[in-house]
């Protein structure tokens, strides 16, 4: 009897595609137009398919998770823990970014290019506008535009509605389960195309951004990536070990697939289907991960926070501006709060960076210096963002299990005392 050929795992296939994409991209640097015009469209098609399924997956999985919890108070408790976790890790992330940028003098030795720098910053919404924009005025518009915070709000309210409807809400509950299962199957079909998508996404990036573009700003890239890696290894490893008793090696091994896809696609929302599958393998219950991960893809921006810290110090140093402790604390506060209003799409960090620079009086024109390497930085910061989402899901799930165990133990003790 012949031995069956061992099938390559999806993670291995993605890694091979990533390496091939880099090699082909390097070889195509002189013909980058071909890579952009004829290879990139396949990557765009793949991302479009991912984006197509993300909204129904987020909407239905959050509703399914809330309905399965059957307790509005429990949903609130999980939501509070999730937001606190995201805020704390984001504050730690930008602190790490600032420390590394200061210690390694990220802007030292850089000569400003000749000519006047120009960069037109996008207008940043104020806090009240951001708050108002979280709540949709139309059910369908957020779904068609993929405005993820509004999609989450819709899912939460309708999930609560199903719970409050009691027995009359049961047909809706069954419909949600059925539609969610269909969405997950569609997601599974699209995920099988990942190796092709990853190759088509990474190849044009390498072809366009060769050594000539990267070398002058190599120090910024290196400092940012060192901070990215340190934050993941120290903060997330400590969190999953401390809160969930999970081996960091196991955590990163299972997360390797989502990490590879995040690196090549630079889209937190696009990685969401991968992340949901990985966190369930890590032991997080579906009802927890289906609530925590979509929320994280929208408001958790640890990698973006590191990027902002590094870039803020870089821009300050090349303009000869010294930032005092108060100003650097302002950067930490601004970046942490600004993460709420940033969607998980490629390039979203630029608006946040403009907000951070303006908060401490740094010239926004300095963004023009890092704009050329933003895609390279974006790839790394997306990896940090989605890894943080997964660590939160695992930790929140572990905390909820302990809370539930204590509640059951207390009930048993009271029942024993009542006998």
List keywords for this structure.
419 residues; mainly alpha; 19 helices; globular
Overview of this structure, please?
This protein is an all-alpha fold. It is 77% helix and 0% strand. It contains 19 helices and no strands. The longest helix has 45 residues, at 374-418. Residues 343-347 have low confidence and may be disordered.
SSE blueprint:
Blueprint: H1 10-27, H2 32-69, H3 72-103, H4 127-134, H5 140-145, H6 148-164, H7 170-191, H8 194-208, H9 211-214, H10 218-244, H11 248-254, H12 256-265, H13 268-281, H14 286-299, H15 302-318, H16 325-338, H17 349-359, H18 367-371, H19 374-418
Low-confidence stretches: 343-347
From the N-terminal CA to the C-terminal CA, the straight-line distance is 64 Å
**Percentage of residues in DSSP E strands:** under 5%
Shape category: globular
Mean pLDDT, nearest integer?
83
Helix residue percentage:
over 70%
Assembly type of the shown chains? single chain
Total number of strands: 0
Along the chain, the helix and strand elements come as: HHHHHHHHHHHHHHHHHHH
User: Any idea what the radius of gyration is?
Assistant: 22 Å
Give the helix/strand class: mainly alpha
Largest sheet: none
Query: Helical element count?
Result: 19
């Amino acid at each position: 009897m012949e031995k069956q050929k061992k099938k390559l795992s999806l993670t291995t296939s993605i890694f091979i595609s990533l390496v091939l994409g880099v090699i082909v991209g390097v070889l195509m640097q002189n013909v980058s137009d071909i890579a952009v015009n004829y290879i990139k469209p396949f990557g765009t098609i793949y991302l479009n398919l991912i984006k197509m399924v993300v909204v129904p997956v987020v909407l239905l999985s959050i509703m399914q998770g809330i309905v399965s919890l059957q307790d509005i108070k429990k949903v609130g408790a999980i939501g509070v823990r999730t937001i606190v976790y995201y805020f704390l890790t984001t504050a730690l992330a930008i602190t790490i970014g600032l420390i590394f940028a200061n210690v390694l003098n990220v802007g030292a030795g850089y000569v400003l290019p000749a000519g006047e720098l120009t960069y037109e910053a996008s207008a940043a919404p104020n806090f009240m506008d951001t708050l108002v924009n979280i709540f949709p005025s139309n059910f369908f518009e957020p779904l068609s535009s993929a405005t993820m915070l509004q999609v989450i709000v819709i899912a939460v309210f309708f999930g609560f509605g199903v719970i409050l409807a009691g027995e009359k809400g049961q047909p809706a509950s069954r419909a949600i389960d059925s539609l969610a299962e269909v969405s997950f199957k569609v997601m599974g079909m699209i995920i099988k195309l990942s190796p092709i998508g990853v190759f088509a996404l990474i190849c044009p990036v390498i072809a366009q951004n060769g050594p000539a573009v990267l070398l002058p700003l190599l120090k910024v890239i290196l400092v940012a990536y060192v901070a990215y890696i340190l934050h993941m290894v120290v903060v997330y490893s400590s969190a999953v070990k401390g809160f969930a008793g999970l081996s960091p090696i196991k955590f990163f091994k299972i997360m390797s697939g989502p990490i590879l896809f995040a690196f090549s696609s630079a889209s937190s929302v696009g990685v969401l289907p991968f992340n949901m599958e990985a966190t369930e393998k890590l032991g997080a219950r579906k009802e927890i991960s289906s609530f925590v991960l979509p929320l994280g893809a929208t408001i958790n921006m640890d990698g973006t926070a590191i990027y902002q810290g590094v870039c803020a110090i870089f821009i300050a140093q090349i303009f000869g501006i010294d930032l005092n402790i108060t100003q650097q604390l302002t950067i930490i506060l601004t970046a942490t709060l600004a993460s709420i209003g940033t969607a998980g799409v490629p390039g979203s960090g630029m608006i946040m960076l403009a907000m951070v620079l303006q908060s401490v009086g740094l010239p926004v024109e300095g963004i023009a210096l890092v704009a050329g390497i933003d895609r390279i930085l974006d790839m790394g910061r997306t990896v940090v963002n989605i890894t943080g989402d997964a660590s939160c899901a695992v930790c929140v799930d572990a905390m909820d299990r302990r809370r539930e165990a204590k509640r059951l133990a207390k009930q048993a003790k009271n029942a024993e005392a009542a006998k």
